[in-house]
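[Meeting: bench + compute handoff]

Bench side (C.D.) handed over the final construct sequence. Compute side (W.E.) agreed to return the predicted structure before the next meeting so the bench team could plan truncations. Sequence as handed over:
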Amino acid sequence: MSRKYGDEVDEEKYNLNTSKNICSSHIGDEYIKNEILEKGVKGKCDYCGKTRSKVVKLSEVLKLIIVGIEYLTEDPVESRCLDKEAEYGFDGNVFTFYEGLLENIETRLVIETNELFDDICSHLDNPSLLYCYKDEFGSEGDFLKDNWEHFKFIVKHKARFVFHDNSFSGDYYYQNPLYILEKIQELINENGMIVEIPENTSLYRCRQHSKKNDIGGAKDLVSSPFEYAKNNGRMNPAGIPMFYCSEDKKLTIQEVVDNSDKNNPFYTIGEFNNKSSLKVVDLTKIPDLPSIFDEDNNKFIESILFLKSFVEDAIKPINQSDSIIEYIPTQIVTEYIRYNQKLDVQGLIYPSSKNRKKNNIVLFFDNNECIERLNLICFKTKKNRIQS
């Protein structure tokens, strides 16, 4: 059960005996600030001397700090081997609160006064208590990142179509490559990353072409017919067309138009509406990192860090000459998401690598499906400004 405001802690380990009050002005961590503002009562703050509408006992803040300590550390007696030659008798980095934790905790708290810093140290520094960091030899986030790298290596250089074979599991550390796909699906569901694109949303798509009259209607602007789907995309391999678009007209031009392409001096922008609502995975909808002092949610920190690094890796700019091999991992992830019944989605939203403040959308629609599920509202052809 998670420790709540007001819960007791082991006072044999920590001295929480204090009559001081504290207001939210002296700690920068948003979770603890909000706890003070939510649970506090009117009273005088002992650190600024002002009467505030919300103060709490310092002991309650100390209990939340202990949550952070327990998130970061573990007892070396339970997790380290004996080493008679080491300072504290265990292998690895073993330390007291003052030696190895105080600076880390202070940085995360963003403490505003020396007096508060001294009080935290005096109440929580028990020289008889030893700690070691849980992630000293690798965190859950490191494990997920390493297995993502393992997955990328396998599908790019070893096996593209039978990578789920158990022979591609490494030692006890590296999992079957299918593991990371299942983990991504699990994290999408856990973090509520499936959203709806409402019916009649304006979706813009751009194509660059050689002749002014190349685009005559919807068929020419939507996903290519199978026989012409010869290019690799970030999310689709050659031969499997998808509908790339955005809710931002300018972004579609930025993504598609190459001002140095003299062979294709024209581009056409089309505005489409979806005939019905669409369920998509929104890779921009990753939750903010919880505070380490939030016991209900700090267990999600490592998986959220992995999701953020995965998306960054998936959208990084790639040279056209490298795209055939470098797009393979994201193409496989996309196909796994597309046909995953536990997700049941029709597309993805992902950050643009050209403009990080805006998003692209890919819908899993081929040429015929685009005509069935999208309405072309209007389109306009323009002459590109060719740069020499």
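W.E. noted at the follow-up: The mean pLDDT is 90. C.D. will use this when planning the next construct.
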